[in-house]
Each structure stands twice: as structure tokens, then as C-alpha cells.
UniProtKB/TrEMBL annotation:
It comes from Mesorhizobium huakuii. InterPro entries: AB_hydrolase_fold (IPR029058), AXE1_dom (IPR008391), CE7 (IPR039069). Residues 1-318 form the Acetyl xylan esterase domain. It comes from the Bacteria. Pfam families: AXE1. This is Acetylxylan esterase.
Length: 323
């Protein structure tokens, strides 16, 4: 197949035209403050598994609006002192899955948390967290739920959940508050960029083939969903383009990247039809902290998979002094 987007050197030089709203910081500061004010209980109970080399816990914590959000917490069975934490967010349509999946972080000496995604988790992995908030008219999927008002947009709730997960985990006496990392692929990569841009407690960001970056370019260049949900919405709501992109500017990970100071390890797939590589470079080139990016030249949206996980483990272990 031909490369669907820009190639080097034009790709590496690409600069996003996304603008940051004047009240971007205030919007997110007040959003997170309101969620914290809503409060809610954190529950951590032993998960029912046969695993013995790691400890597995079923976690419920308060997210946006105090709504209960699920997650898995996995720890090395034998550990001393405070552990570095890796919080992982999930790709589009997926949920937290099962407790015995994704054990490589705990096996490498990290506390590992995999957050469920409200309202998702019935496509390629299971979830158990409802989204109790309704929506105005939208295309099936999540990209246009509440998109005509930044206060009602679905990703306001999801990004807030992700920050509140950090709040819940930092209250645990075995978590090192100075060694907090976030990661994820696709939608999860976008969420990790958002959390890194909102929460200065995050000390490392690892977005793989990140989604939710450079919306104006994405809707013009993506070949496959989910960005095309926005296209189909605007094909019917022809007069609402300005309102849609005004909302999306508050959730564009290019803007979060501009505010992120933690070291970051990105990845991009140059044949990606879901998250066009120029949109990833739009966020990468805007990223304000120390950064590096790995290219998978001949891969589509699957990106580096195990190869990138191996690179993440090496990179983060060195950064956090593990092993």
C-alpha cells in the first residue's frame, strides 16, 4: 500500500495549526477542581485470579462528577518501599479487560494500573464502567457525543477520569509520588498526553500512535474511523463546523503537548490509516518537554506493539532507576 500521509523530511517538519483557546488552562483547572470537590470513595479489593507472581486488585475510584470508575491494579508480589507507577489508558472501544492480561510492568518492578474507559469496552476488550451522562444528537461512537458544547463533550469526562485515577493511586503508601508515568496506544495515547498536560505530578509520558491529535488535519487525512465519525456528523450538520472545532480545541492533544514538561517517548506508524502520522508529529513537535519518537515505517495503526513495549520498559526503567 502507498504511504497515506506525509513522508520524511516533510513529516518531521510538520507544525500543527491548532490554536489554544485563551481560557484553556482555566477550563481544565476548574474541571478538575469540580471533580475533586465531588468526592467519592476509593475501593481496592483482591481480584479473583490464579496469579501468584503478582498481586491483582479490583479498584473503583471516583472520576468526573464522582462517577465510579473501574481499573486493575497489579503489583509485584514481593516488593519493598515505594514503587514507581505506570497508569495505562485504553484504546478506542476497549475496556480494562481481564486482570491477568498485561503483566509485563508488574513483572518489571512497577506498580501498574489499567483504567477502564467509561461507556466503552464492548469492541475488542471488555469494560465494566458505565457513562451515566446523556448526549445531544451524535454519530454512533464517542467522537461527537456532546461535541457542540465543551462542557458536555464526552472527552471532558474521560480525561477527568484519567487525572482522578492519579489522585486515587497517589494516596497509596506503596506508590512513589515522584515516579509517575502514563501510557497508552491510540485513544490511550491521547489520554496520556492530556493527563501529562494537565497534571504536573506526571514525570513520564509514553503515547503510542496517539489519537485525538490535530483534529483539523485528522478529519481531512484519516482513512478509517474514528475521526470519520466527525466527518459524518458534519456532513449532516453542515452549519455546525465552527461550533464543533471550537469544542475540539479544548481536547486536542496538540494543546496538551504544548503544556507538558515531563520526558516523553512517542511512537508513530507511517502507514497508519487511523491516526495519520502527521497528526502524531503535530503533537510531538508541539511537545514542550524532553522527547523522542520511534517510527514504524511499514506498520499501520497496530504500530510497534511488543517492540514498543520493550522500548518503553527500557526507557522508563532507566529514567526511574528501576533494575
Amino acid at each position: 500500500m502507498p504511504f497515506p500521509d506525509l513522508v520524511q523530511p516533510e513529516l518531521g517538519a510538520y507544525v500543527s495549526s491548532v490554536g489554544m483557546p485563551d481560557d484553556f488552562v482555566q477550563f481544565w483547572t476548574s474541571t478538575i477542581a469540580d471533580a475533586r470537590q465531588a468526592g467519592g470513595e476509593v475501593s481496592i479489593v483482591q481480584a479473583q485470579t490464579t496469579l501468584t507472581a503478582v498481586q491483582s486488585f479490583d479498584v473503583t475510584f471516583p472520576g468526573y462528577g464522582g462517577h465510579p470508575i473501574k481499573g486493575w491494579l497489579i503489583l509485584p508480589t514481593h516488593h519493598e518501599g515505594r514503587l514507581p507507577l505506570v497508569a495505562q489508558y485504553i484504546g478506542y472501544g476497549g475496556g480494562r479487560g481481564l486482570a491477568h492480561e498485561q503483566l509485563h510492568w508488574a513483572a518489571s518492578g512497577f506498580a501498574y494500573f489499567r483504567m477502564d474507559t467509561r461507556g466503552q469496552g464492548s469492541d475488542w476488550s471488555v469494560g465494566e464502567t458505565a457513562d451515566p451522562v446523556g448526549s445531544t444528537s451524535s454519530i454512533p461512537g464517542f467522537m461527537t457525543r456532546g461535541v457542540l458544547d465543551k462542557n458536555d463533550y464526552y472527552y471532558r469526562r474521560l480525561f477527568t477520569d484519567a487525572v482522578r485515577a492519579i489522585d486515587a493511586l497517589l494516596g497509596l503508601d506503596f506508590v512513589d509520588p515522584e515516579r509517575i508515568a502514563v501510557c497508552g496506544d491510540s485513544q490511550g495515547g491521547g489520554i496520556s498526553l492530556a493527563v501529562g498536560g494537565i497534571d504536573p505530578r506526571v514525570k513520564a509520558v509514553m503515547p503510542d500512535v496517539p489519537f485525538l491529535c490535530d483534529f483539523p488535519r485528522a478529519v481531512q487525512t484519516a482513512v478509517r474511523d474514528p475521526y470519520l465519525e466527525i466527518v459524518r456528523f458534519l456532513a449532516q450538520h453542515r452549519e455546525k463546523k465552527a461550533a464543533v472545532f471550537e469544542t475540539l480545541n479544548y481536547f486536542d492533544c496538540v494543546n496538551f503537548a504544548r503544556r507538558s514538561k515531563a520526558p516523553a517517548l512517542f511512537s508513530v506508524a507511517l502507514m497508519d490509516e487511523v491516526c495519520p502520522p502527521s497528526t502524531v508529529y503535530g503533537a510531538f513537535n508541539a511537545y514542550a518537554g524532553e522527547k523522542t519518537i520511534t517510527e514504524y515505517e511499514f506498520n499501520n495503526h497496530e504500530g510497534g506493539q511488543g517492540y514498543q513495549e520493550r522500548q518503553q520498559m527500557t526507557w522508563l526503567s532507566r529514567l526511574f532507576g528501576v533494575g
